Amino acid sequence: MTKDDVRDAALTLFAERGYHGTSLKDVAGALGLRTPSLYAHIDSKQSLLVDIVLHTIEQVVADFEEVLAAERDPVERVRAATRVYAAHHATHRREALVVNHETVHLEEPDLTVAQQMRRDHEHAFRQVIADGKRAGVFTVASPKLASFAILEMCVSIARWFNDDGEVTADAVAEQYSDYALALVGASTVS
Predict the structure, then answer these.
(1) What separation, in Å, do the N-terminal and C-terminal C-alpha atoms of the chain show?
(2) Distance between CA atoms of 78 and 183, rounded to whole angstroms?
(3) pTM
């Protein structure tokens, strides 16, 4: 049994039942352990939530920064940023569900840290749209509203996407990137 095993069990239960709907006894039971045995791997249920939320947000931001570093064209930057965000929500559904529904249960200072990381990510996404508007490539009236709409559209993927469904995660991510470009009024949409 490793810390990663405990984290994975907690992640599944938090995604299915919520943070408050999951006890450490539930996590231990999912692993075939007694509750006291968990403390060899974790400090608390709260520490599990902190680890899941902060690690997930850090990964989303790292993926976003990586695709932006590879693109200069405003259209391709919005396309790539939306594609990676949508794909993350399709391929890391449990993490997305926990971050989007359970972050509010973080204690301070971790709650403020997580909220600031999410705000910074939204502002960076918004700036990509604003830069495209300033360059005359996008016609959207409000980059702020557009960034909210695109990010929220992608967040919803975690609620409905199914690996066994009719469409793949890559196809969803590609289609959502087209939606994002249409939303910002890009002059070239594939």
Answers:
(1) 48
(2) 11
(3) 0.94
Residue linked to tokens 């990676």? 84
Cα-to-chain-centroid distance, residue 155? 7
Q: How many Å apart are CA 185 and CA 75, to the nearest integer? A: 10
- Residue 154, token pair as written in the block: 């992608």
Give the separation between CA 24 and CA 38, rounded to whole angstroms: 8
22 backbone φψ class: left, alpha, beta (φ>0; ψ -120 to 50): beta
Average pLDDT, the chain: 96
pLDDT band at 37 (very low <50, low <70, confident <90, very high): very high
Q: Measured between alpha carbons, how far is 178 from 97 in angstroms, rounded to an integer?
A: 24
E-strand spans in 20-132?
A: none
User: What single letter denotes the amino acid at residue 79?
Assistant: R
pLDDT in tens, 72-114: 999 999 999 999 999 999 999 999 999 999 999 999 999 999 9
Taking residues 114-125, what's their average pLDDT?
Answer: 98
Backbone angles phi, psi at 142, to 5 degrees: -130, 105
Residue 53's pLDDT is: 98
Hunting for tokens 């594609």 — which residue is that? 83
Instruction: Dig out the tokens for 63 from the structure.
Output: 């993926």
**Count, residues in the chain:** 190
